[in-house]
Design brief:
Elements: H1 6-23, H2 28-37, H3 41-45, H4 54-58, E1 79-86, E2 93-101, H5 105-117, E3 122-125, E4 134-139, E5 142-150, E6 153-154, E7 174-182, H6 184-187, E8 205-208, E9 211-214, H7 223-234, H8 248-252, H9 264-278, H10 308-316, H11 341-353, H12 362-369, H13 379-388, H14 396-401, H15 415-422, E10 424-426, E11 431-433, H16 434-442
Helix pairs in contact: 7-15, 9-10, 9-11, 11-13
Length: about 450
């Protein structure tokens, strides 16, 4: 058998090489070899070359919670804060916070449904299904609106939709917004009462079921919105409560709460009242209130429900979607749900145009209004949004929301914004404002000249 000499040869070469390194350890040749086999310092300082720490350098910084975030609002444990925005509502105390979670939407929604069902929360509205929607809850002077959306599809009525974080790439992530408003109007009621000389002198008087009302919380509103409320109040449109349970002293010092979110029920009452008061001398333009013998158009608004006559009247006039208009999906009115921007435009525009709405598309709305989020508008409301553009400066969107390239169709509407919308009915060339209606109401009616008897 032949002896394999390769291990011996390799061992000899290794010994020679080791001896060479030892002999020239302090020589220039040794130092050159040391530099050749030394670790690369660039690789040490930049570990991302191997992809091991790339996540650490690209990780997005998580924004902190606002300092005034109420501790009583429950936070989902597996959710991460994505964005914080101050509210654009004048004088409103609160923020809009956007969140994201890898958990399914029904798990997050169940968590909040349990949380809001316990304690002292008052649930104003909640989602109809477990696949998204909106919670509106109140606790003392705090109002919280929590709205859900999944992936890139926004399906909420929040004041703004959540923007995905740069590192949030999963289309199945559950995104939701938590908007909170600390109701300054109710909070001021706990302060010491002011002397009569310190109270606002421009508060309008409202006739509500024979009782005068003085709104005492309009002084912080912009002058234009304040004037709109003044004019409507002078017509007796802005009733605070459809019931007559309040005493005269309570009604005479009512607060309008201009920054409070308005409900669908309340806006329906205001819309019918404003239309009928502004067109008081034109019976053909008025909306006939429903009778008690009418079959309800919605299963959640019975004949004994508050504001049944106004809601039913809008349905019977075909001004809101219902089974009467052939819309089999609109079986519920959801009277206590918050009014959204697209709801406001959809209900109001037919009373401005008094004719069939035009055919509309997303591209048409983008070309006219320039809305970046036109694709999020409900198809039912697209036609109304497009028709509103024809009224130019008297359009509801311009008059209520000002210049904007984002319509935010699911954003909730405040009482002050709702009042601005119903202050004027008609188009740019032909319409009537609440101020003009009040002037017509207060101007004396000319007497009909009497005929002088002829002398025979």
């Amino acid at each position: 058998m032949l002896f394999d000499k390769r291990p011996v040869i390799l061992a000899g070469l290794a010994a020679c090489f080791l001896g060479l390194l030892t002999s020239c350890a302090n020589s220039p040749t040794g130092k050159a070899l040391e530099r050749t086999f030394a670790a690369d310092s660039k690789l040490k300082d930049n570990p991302n070359v191997f992809g091991g720490s790339s996540q650490r350098t690209s990780q997005r910084e998580i924004p902190p919670l606002p300092q005034d975030f109420p501790s009583e609002i429950p936070l989902y444990p597996q959710a991460q804060l994505q964005k914080v925005e101050p509210l654009t509502i004048p004088e409103a105390q609160g923020h809009l916070t956007s969140w994201s979670s890898s958990d399914p939407i029904n798990a997050v929604q169940s968590f909040y449904e349990r949380a809001f069902s316990s304690g002292s929360w008052q649930i104003i509205s909640k989602p109809d299904t477990d696949a998204g929607g909106t919670f509106v809850v109140r606790r003392d002077t705090l109002q919280v609106t929590l709205s859900f959306s999944t992936g890139a599809t926004a399906n909420s009525t929040a004041t703004a939709s959540a923007t995905p974080a740069p590192d949030q790439t999963s289309s199945s992530a559950t995104k939701f917004d938590i908007q909170y408003i600390k109701n300054a109007g109710e909070a001021t009621s706990q302060q010491p009462s002011q002397p009569d000389s310190a109270k606002p002198t421009s508060s309008p008087t409202v006739a509500t079921q024979g009782t005068s009302q003085n709104f005492t919380d309009l002084d912080k509103l912009p002058q234009e919105l304040r004037q709109h409320i003044d004019d409507l109040a002078a017509l007796g449109v802005l009733s605070i409560d459809s019931s007559a349970s309040k005493t005269n002293s309570e009604a005479s010092s009512a607060k309008f709460e201009p920054n409070k979110i308005i409900t669908r029920r309340e806006f329906a009452r205001w819309l019918v009242a404003a239309n009928n008061r502004i067109y008081a001398n034109r019976p053909g333009q008025q909306i006939r209130l429903a009778s008690d013998t009418t079959q309800p158009a919605f299963s959640d608004v019975t004949k004994s429900s508050p504001d049944f006559q106004s809601i039913q009247a809008l349905a019977e006039a075909g001004l809101i979607p219902s089974r009467l208009t052939g819309d089999t999906t609109s079986v519920l009115f959801r009277p206590d749900a918050p009014l959204t921007r697209e709801n406001l435009i959809l209900w109001k525009i037919p009373l401005d145009t008094r004719q069939a709405l035009p055919t509309a598309s997303i591209d048409a709305v983008k070309q006219t209004w320039g809305f970046q989020d036109a694709g999020k508008i409900d198809p039912k409301a697209l036609r109304a949004v497009l028709a509103d553009f024809q009224s130019s400066e008297q359009s509801n969107i311009r008059r209520v929301f000002g210049y904007t390239t984002l319509f935010q169709p699911k954003k909730t509407v405040t009482r002050a914004e709702a009042a601005a919308a119903i202050w004027y009915f008609g188009s740019q060339s032909e319409g009537v404002s609440a101020k003009e209606a009040q002037q017509l109401k207060s101007s004396p009616t000319p007497e009909t000249p009497k005929e002088t008897p002829k002398t025979p």
